[in-house]
């Protein structure tokens, strides 16, 4: 009975959706995920959903300071990543379509047993605009802010920092050769994040996000999500 209800609800949504309806998304640059040329894994995945559900999706890639301003001034319907804004009653979210995790990493095998409690008077590279949980509130740490994962790894390789706070799958897509040499405690991520779009609440966005969530579920059940997300796919931590 629940399945029938979902099918009818989706049919109703599709019927009401105008193929000329547009949804605009603004995001930071995530090489391999959201590319300026539109060829990233998340670009491909979300455009596939738009094609399936019959609406137009526009994706803008902007620097971190401009992303938030673009969204808060309502130039875009949706924003990614979700930590850039405060979730409120004026916003709605999609279901998770992938997962991301951040870790403290360096080139030393001993880092496989690293804990946050080990961090004392340490210099760490972090990327502007991303969430690293409790790390950035800890005392006696120095942070060097960068605009990309590759910059973070270059600081680490040059020994200007002791650790790099890196996100997966981002770092493996942006700098696979260097990233393959990293050691980190896989059992203790700094953050574990559901990848979602956050959008302004409106009748149009409510309708389109229902369609997006239906497509996310359909692609997951068919296994097509793993094909579309490719090397960016991460399963949820158990």
| Assigned CATH superfamily of the largest domain | Periplasmic binding protein-like II
Average pLDDT across residues? 91
Terminal CA distance? 30 Å
Task: State the CATH topology of the largest domain.
Answer: D-Maltodextrin-Binding Protein, domain 2
Largest sheet: 6 strands, mixed
| Order of SSEs | HEHEHEEEEEHEHHEEEHH
- The total tally of domains equals 2
Query: Regarding CATH, which class of the largest domain?
Result: Alpha Beta
> Structural class per helix/strand content?
alpha/beta
What is the percentage of strand-forming residues? 15-25%
Percentage of helical residues? Answer: 25-40%
β-strand number: 11
Q: Could you list the spans in which at least 5 consecutive residues all have pLDDT below 50? A: 1-8
Properties at a glance:
alpha/beta, 2 domains, five-stranded mixed sheet, six-stranded mixed sheet, D-Maltodextrin-Binding Protein, domain 2, 8 helices, Solute-binding protein family 3/N-terminal domain-containing protein, 11 strands, disordered N terminus, 238 residues
What would your notes on this structure say?
With 238 residues, the chain is of the alpha/beta class. It has two domains: 2-97 and 196-232, 3-Layer(aba) Sandwich (D-Maltodextrin-Binding Protein, domain 2), CATH 3.40.190; 100-192, D-Maltodextrin-Binding Protein, domain 2 (3-Layer(aba) Sandwich), CATH 3.40.190.10. Helix content is 34%, strand content 23%. The strands form two sheets. Strands 5, 6, 7, 8, 9 and 10 form a six-stranded mixed β-sheet that branches. Helix 2 (41-53) links the parallel strand 1 and strand 2 (56-61). Mean pLDDT is 91; it is low at 1-8.
